[in-house]
């Protein structure tokens, strides 16, 4: 039987201290790790029946800081994943780690249990910049945790780097990348700092010494070139990998494939529905423990309409370097992408933001940098596309 494939995301919403720029849902001083683990296991049990026709080919334990969950609880959680889902032998199994919270024996244990990819949040090799970001670790601590990960047997490691951060210069970012490349991780994520509403950075934005836009643009494009020179091919706006080491789990998101998220703030795309949970760990635990209490943990829950499917497909496929395949688009939605969006495409192609080659539309580095803006211009639902889908053209 040819089973459908599924990705699993498990959110561990715990951090030792909130970083001043971070908008991810997490809490500090959390003392109910066993109770939270039990809630996650209950939720997995709830879904396991519905997933009996699926095979899991990627698992991602993210946060927050998963490596802050006590080892005993993490072991229960990992065993619970295997118990409730059919995880393929060669599945990609990622865990996020903060350099200040990993040790060799714990990493060895997780590696033995099947975790085969580690994602370490380094952000910068410059101490001043790390302090500016209010990170709790030093560069030296990152190097130690990286070495421990290799020693524990991880041969697939991602390192997160940030650009456009306070006090950063083009030269200091270049030095950070040199340090990371020297370590030869299989994957590097390079994120631009965004000032997220409600964070301390947003509150004090006027006091932050941020690189200006031209410098930030130069940081992004020169990083792409540098990483390419060292064998890290860009495959998505913020992601670079050695050949064959692209993150399979994240590719699921961008290829509009199904995944289930567990825990508060986690998102899912499953059986044509998109849903996410509220940002409250206590509400999440209460709801799982008292299923008859009528606690609504959904932040959103909707069926993906034909129009939303078109929008999502364009939005997600164009994030990837390989871009959008016009034949695939036509097959799915019964419409010629090039004709439908001719006016927008001409503007972006003529001005060097996009390219068209071998039936694919894709962003240039210049286009990648402003991709959010460009993508929004495509997101206007066209009723003709919806009609085509409704009349059975959707494959
Ligand atoms: S450690 Fe990660 S998840 Fe936690 S506050 Fe910092 S950036 Fe956010």
């Amino acid at each position: 039987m040819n089973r459908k494939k599924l990705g699993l995301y498990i959110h561990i919403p715990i951090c030792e201290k909130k970083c001043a720029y971070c908008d991810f849902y997490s809490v500090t001083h959390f003392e109910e790790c066993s109770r939270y683990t039990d809630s996650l296991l209950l939720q997995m049990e709830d879904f396991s029946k519905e997933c009996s026709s699926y095979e899991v080919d990627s698992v991602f334990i993210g946060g927050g800081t998963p490596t802050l969950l006590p080892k005993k609880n993490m072991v229960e959680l990992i065993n619970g994943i295997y118990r409730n889902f059919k995880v393929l032998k060669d599945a990609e199994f990622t865990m996020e780690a903060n350099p200040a919270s990993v040790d060799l024996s714990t990493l060895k244990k997780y590696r033995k249990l099947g975790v085969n990819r580690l994602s370490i949040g380094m952000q910068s090799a410059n101490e001043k910049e790390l302090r500016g970001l209010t990170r709790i670790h030093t560069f030296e601590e990152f190097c130690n945790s990286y070495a421990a990960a290799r020693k524990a047997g991880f041969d697939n490691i991602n390192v997160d780097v940030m650009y456009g951060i306070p006090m950063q210069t083009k030269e200091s970012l270049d030095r950070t990348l040199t340090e990371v490349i020297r370590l030869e991780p299989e994957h590097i994520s390079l994120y631009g700092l965004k000032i997220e509403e409600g964070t301390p950075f947003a509150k004090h934005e006027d006091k932050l010494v941020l690189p200006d836009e031209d410098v930030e643009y130069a940081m992004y494009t020169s990083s792409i070139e540098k990483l390419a020179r060292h064998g890290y091919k860009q495959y998505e706006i913020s992601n670079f990998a050695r050949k064959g080491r692209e993150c399979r789990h994240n590719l699921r998101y961008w290829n509009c494939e199904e995944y289930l998220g567990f825990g508060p703030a986690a998102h899912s795309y499953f059986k044509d529905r998109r849903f996410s949970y509220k940002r409250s760990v206590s509400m999440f635990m209460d709801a799982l423990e008292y299923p008859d209490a009528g606690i609504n943990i959904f932040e959103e829950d909707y069926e993906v309409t034909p129009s939303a499917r078109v929008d999502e497909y364009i939005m997600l496929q164009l994030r990837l370097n390989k871009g959008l395949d016009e034949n695939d688009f036509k097959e799915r939605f019964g419409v010629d992408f090039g004709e439908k969006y001719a006016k927008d495409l001409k503007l972006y192609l003529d001005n060097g933001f996009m390219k068209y080659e071998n039936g694919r539309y894709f962003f240039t580095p210049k286009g990648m940098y402003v991709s959010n803006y460009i993508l929004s211009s495509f997101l206007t639902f066209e009723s003709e596309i919806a009609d085509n889908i409704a009349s059975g053209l959707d494959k």
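The radius of gyration is 22 Å. The pocket of iron/sulfur cluster is lined by residues 15, 18-19, 22, 24, 26, 63-65, 98, 121 (CB under 6 Å).
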